[in-house]
């Protein structure tokens, strides 16, 4: 376990030593942005630390409504609803849509929040091979007389691979399915405006695509949200026990999120810097002969056939002043991973240093 003694930016402090930090999910570097920190401080002065109540009683403030309006504008949707944690989003949405499906199809490498979010009375759950559209169609064809819902990650958290949402959406239309995309790692990252995987594939104005999202990654703050039609958000507000029974988001988080959205919309250069850094680092890793994925995302795994080798690389980098964790994650995979994440804040010198150390290590231990 990494125990921080500083903020988590492109550099961190551990036990008095400074490390170059290639971990976490602070993709745009916004968790430490001075304007966002100021917004949080000002909000504490105005509202205190906590409203200490659920939204439907006395836990809603004008800043919650402002945030939901900003999120719906950002996502180009009719409304948005925010809640305590991004992990809750799949459960909240799957319950809100429950009267529209009886059978679920999900990627075998789906995030645990997807599996945990499936309502208990849904008995027909099918897993399709990882990003295998043909296998998904085979399963849909076998269940063509049932009311179906497909749910998958947009960007897979462990590998950074982008799900083929364009092809999955075509199947959803063909077989009359609802499509839900967990876009936790894509919102703020993919698409011309940073609105996520559907925009990345130029899927606009699609009524049968829903997204679940978090503010804890590219937005640099905390909490989950769903942006959709008012019919869906009203249903969540009226019927979701997870929403109704949760304390509302704290004031500094809400105000910080509003400022984060403003920066994301006004500064597309943040996404451009992230894309450039990710491309440069991935290109260097491939040239070293190390095994990684091809998707243009800030998650750049290095795959190993043994856990010991992944750990040795992580330990070697830490000894030399860089943090790249060997990740143990509850997702089905037949590989072991040193998971590198890059941010818009990483410098070219940091990337060059990481590549130089990877070259030294692979010359001694061999490539994967």
What's the structural blueprint in terms of helices and strands?
Blueprint: E1 11-14, E2 17-21, H1 34-47, H2 62-75, E3 79-83, H3 89-96, E4 103-107, H4 112-117, E5 124-128, H5 133-142, E6 148-153, H6 165-175, E7 178-182, H7 197-200, E8 209-214, E9 224-228, H8 230-239, H9 241-244, H10 251-266, H11 269-287, E10 299-304, H12 307-319, E11 322-323, E12 326-327, E13 336-341, H13 348-365
Parallel strand pairs: 2-11, 4-5, 4-6, 6-7, 7-8
Antiparallel strand pairs: 1-2, 3-9, 8-9, 10-13, 12-13
Helix pairs in contact: 1-10, 2-10, 5-6, 11-13
Backbone shape: globular
Q: Spans with pLDDT under 50 lasting ≥5 residues?
A: none
Total strands: the figure is 13
**Structural class based on helices, strands and sheet pairing:** alpha/beta
Major sheet size, sense and barrel closure: 7 strands, mixed
CATH C-level class of the largest domain is Alpha Beta
Strand content range? 15-25%
Mean of all residue-level pLDDT scores = 95
Counting DSSP H or I runs of 4 or more residues, the number of helices is 13
Q: How many distinct folded domains?
A: 2
- CATH fold type of the largest domain: Aspartate Aminotransferase, domain 2
Radius of gyration using CA atoms only: 21 Å
Strand order, main sheet: write it out: 3-9-8-7-6-4-5
Distance between the termini: 24 Å
Q: What is the string of SSEs from the N terminus onward?
A: EEHHEHEHEHEHEHEEHHHHEHEEEH
- In the CATH hierarchy, the architecture of the largest domain is 3-Layer(aba) Sandwich
Helix content: 25-40%
Relevant CATH superfamily of the largest domain: Type I PLP-dependent aspartate aminotransferase-like (Major domain)
Characterize the quaternary organization of these chains.
single chain
């Amino acid at each position: 376990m990494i125990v921080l003694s500083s903020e988590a930016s492109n550099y961190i402090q551990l036990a008095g030593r400074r490390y170059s930090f290639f971990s976490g999910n602070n993709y745009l570097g916004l968790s430490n942005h001075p304007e966002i920190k100021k917004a949080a401080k000002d909000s504490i002065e105005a509202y205190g630390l906590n409203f200490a109540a659920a939204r439907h009683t006395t836990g809603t403030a004008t800043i919650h409504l402002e945030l939901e309006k900003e999120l719906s504008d950002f996502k180009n949707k009719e409304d948005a609803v925010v809640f305590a944690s991004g992990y809750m989003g799949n459960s909240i949405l799957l319950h809100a849509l429950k009267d529209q499906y009886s059978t679920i199809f999900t990627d075998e490498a789906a995030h645990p929040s997807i599996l945990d979010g499936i309502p208990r009375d849904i008995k027909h759950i099918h897993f399709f091979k990882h990003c295998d559209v043909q296998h998904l169609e085979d399963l849909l064809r076998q269940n063509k007389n049932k009311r179906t819902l497909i749910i998958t990650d947009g960007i897979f958290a462990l590998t950074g691979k982008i799900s083929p949402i364009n092809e999955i959406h075509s199947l959803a239309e063909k077989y009359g399915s609802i499509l839900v995309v967990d876009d936790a790692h894509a919102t703020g990252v993919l698409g011309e405006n940073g609105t996520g995987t559907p925009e990345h594939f130029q899927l606009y104005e699609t009524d049968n695509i829903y997204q679940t999202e978090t503010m804890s990654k590219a937005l640099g703050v905390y909490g989950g949200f769903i942006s959709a039609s008012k019919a869906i958000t009203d249903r969540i507000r009226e019927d979701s026990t997870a929403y109704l029974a949760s304390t509302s988001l704290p004031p500094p988080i809400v105000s910080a999120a509003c400022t984060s959205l403003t920066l994301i919309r006004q500064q597309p250069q943040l996404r451009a810097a992230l894309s450039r850094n990710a491309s440069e680092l991935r290109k260097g890793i491939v040239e070293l002969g190390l095994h990684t994925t091809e998707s243009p995302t800030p998650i750049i795994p290095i795959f190993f056939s043994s856990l010991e080798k992944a750990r040795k690389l992580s330990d070697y980098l830490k000894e030399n002043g860089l943090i790249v964790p060997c990740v143990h994650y509850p997702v089905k995979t037949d590989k072991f991973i040193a998971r590198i994440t890059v941010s818009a804040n990483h410098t070219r010198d940091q990337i060059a240093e990481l590549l130089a150390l990877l070259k030294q290590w692979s010359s001694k231990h061999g490539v994967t």
